[in-house]
Amino acid sequence: MQRRTFLAGSLAALSAGALPAGSAGAASGADEPFLDLLTKMNEAQIPGVLDSYRNSADSVRASARKARRLVSAYVWPRSARHHDGSLLGPLEFLAGRLTTLQHDDGTYDIGNLHSPPDSAFALQDLCLIQNLLAADAQPSTLPVRAALERIIRKAGPALATGGVHTPNHRWEVSAALARINDLYPDRRYAARIDDWLDEGIDVTRDGIYSERSATYASEVTNPSLLTIAWLRHRPELLPVVRKNLAATLFLLEPNGEVDTIASRRQDQNRIRDVWWYLTQYRELALHDRDGRFATVAKDIERRGTGELGDFLAEVLERPELSAQLPPAVAVDDDFVREFPAQHLARIRRGDRTATLFGGTDFHDLPVIASGLSTNPTFFKLRKGRAILDSVRLSPQFFSTGHFRSDGLRRSGQRSFRLGDEVKVPYHLPLPKRYRRSDGAYALTNDGRFYASMDFPHRPKQFRTLETAVTVTEVGTGFDLALELGGSEVPFAVELCFRPGGTLTGVEQLDAAGNYQLVDGTGTYTVGADRIEFGPGNGPARVSMDPGERYTQLNGSLVPEGLRVYLTGRSPARYTLHLRTA
Length: 581
Description:
Layout: H1 3-15, H2 32-52, H3 60-75, H4 88-101, E1 108-110, E2 112-115, H5 116-136, H6 142-161, H7 167-183, H8 187-197, H9 214-231, H10 238-248, E3 257-258, E4 272-273, H11 278-288, H12 291-303, H13 312-317, E5 334-339, E6 344-349, E7 352-357, E8 379-383, E9 386-395, E10 408-412, E11 415-427, E12 443-445, E13 450-452, E14 460-474, E15 477-485, E16 490-497, E17 502-504, E18 507-508, E19 514-516, E20 522-526, E21 529-534, H14 548-551, E22 562-569, E23 572-580
């Protein structure tokens, strides 16, 4: 039986609350609250699609996703929009737009030009749509199905021969090819998938992918690997996803956010929500009968935040994902968890969590660039709704910028140590054998800037700044013991609190959200949750210096929020006390 014929029967059965015979959980039937939630959330998306589907500024991916939302509602018998003829015109418009925008080589421009990986994101949606419409088999959708077939067939060879930019692109392209091959089989597609998979999956011993990004794990790598495992019969991919989901359990915040401080991608400075992981946790919970994963999935459903309606299409395509979950098992909320591969530690005590980070790429590759971890935040703390999003330290030392620890190591039963040594050279005259009468020396980099000075061959004298931070868990909070030595320089410690709370005990510096704790103890309060910090270390004003790598390009490292500064001068020993209540 062709899979689309099987899917047609599965849709009808799922509408009646039954799962396909032989599927996991078939005997207990579908998870009705889960189906009701996805149906409701999808229905809520439709007015927005109908109001905006003609938006000429939409990317190809946005147009494909809007079409996916319309199709989910159209084919689902439980939807209030089931076989609603008013959806067909917009759907035909979107199919026409996607046809027009496709290049002759089968690719699309989506930020990048003629991009196989960016096209693959849209193609995954279009293949899923085609599958659902074929199973629904309504004559009225024949024009759309014909247009989609032309698009998909045209794109297949481009994805099977084209290249990628990033690690996750390999899996996105492979998943799209698996879908295309499922619809319109071609040995070239299977061969290309095998080529990419043969490179090995880039997961570390910590269970984190090489890009260290919750965004790309949840939106790209995990769902792509699950799709390949399903359509290409590659069960060996499931343990990779399982390992990542298990690691993510220790990065979850009580409010449903995922810690992203170690990311090498755009989300290293952004908030990421766990709802993107919904069907991944659900699939592995069902496959492994893992009650922890079931708990996360149910927590996402309970919160009901994010675009959960987008998951309806996946569940209609794979009704087994809607099976009753195994009994919930509490997710550990009292732990110290180390991630050695990225020099990160997570500490959780109920609704109090902390993150320690010393794993930027800055010491191996001292540049600021996409794909590198450069976030100078080395500590984060939250208690309930009171959130300290970052603690940063900036010495004014030859414009070298923020303190970024060169690693993280356990220094005691309840303590960790971060540290770094920065050496800045003064260059002496070249040895005679390297001197030139024309003065035309090689343009080289001394670590801070370029000049025609042939820096590598020059003897040097160094100025040094040594910084160490020992973080110790103490009672209801943490002590951060700072030591700076080697040179006399002013420094500033920056505490950035999440907007929405109230600060007391601090002096307001301006109207832009900057404050200073001069003496005593400050507090940040949200409702009944509070973080206390101090003591103040004097009235000196010291600006946060992001370093010449940023200022040369008019860049900024000012985090969003309420910023409190504590200042001093090295050599110094200062302990910042953070307590929660």
